[in-house]
Design a protein that fits this description.
single chain, 179 residues, mainly alpha, 8 helices, 0% strand
């Protein structure tokens, strides 16, 4: 489990490797937030740049984060959302949350209709289920690492994956019936 208080103290002191730890722990989450907002409306390079901007912002503004008012995750989510919306507004290509799409699992830039359809369904699972799916299936993270990063018990992560698969089957079958 991530001890946000200790990590935040290290970030505030600009401790060596603290930002590297934050990047390792939170990159999948930040990516999920970005794809919830931007879908495939932004090219891979823009997404990568936004992820970098979010962590630079965390590094620069760590001293302003108050864990009594929120978490590091909530700060990162808000930063990711704001950076993504600014970029989308510049491009005049706003994508609503209803149009969420994730690129093909094998490559951010490669996006087929079938993979978009699947990742769109994954995003409908909601938090933290969609984050668990992204971490497990997209980033090939181990369940133990997902448990640690999300602060959930290992058994809870396993249960959420199992039940998430059932929900996903239901979402996909309902969508197919509509087609």
């Amino acid at each position: 489990m991530v001890n946000e208080e200790k990590l935040l103290k290290r970030l505030k002191k600009k401790a060596k490797n603290s930002i590297d730890e934050a990047i390792e722990i939170y990159t999948p989450y930040v990516s999920t937030v970005l794809y919830n907002i931007a879908g495939t409306a932004l090219p891979r390079e823009d997404i990568e740049e936004i992820v970098s901007d979010v962590f630079i912002s965390l590094w620069r503004n760590a001293e302003n984060i108050d864990l009594n008012k929120g978490t590091i995750r909530s700060y990162l989510a808000a930063s990711a959302r704001n950076f993504a919306l600014k970029r989308l507004n510049k491009r005049k290509e706003y994508t609503s949350l209803d149009d969420v799409e994730l690129p093909d699992k094998s490559d951010f830039a490669d996006s087929s209709a079938e993979s978009d359809y699947l990742w769109n369904a994954v995003m409908k699972l909601g938090e933290p289920d969609n984050e668990i799916f992204v971490r497990f299936y997209k980033y090939d993270e181990k369940l133990k690492d997902i448990s640690k990063a999300t602060g959930l018990k290992l058994s809870t992560v396993k249960t959420k994956l199992s039940r998430g698969k059932q929900k996903l089957r239901k979402i996909l079958s309902e969508t197919e019936e509509l087609l």
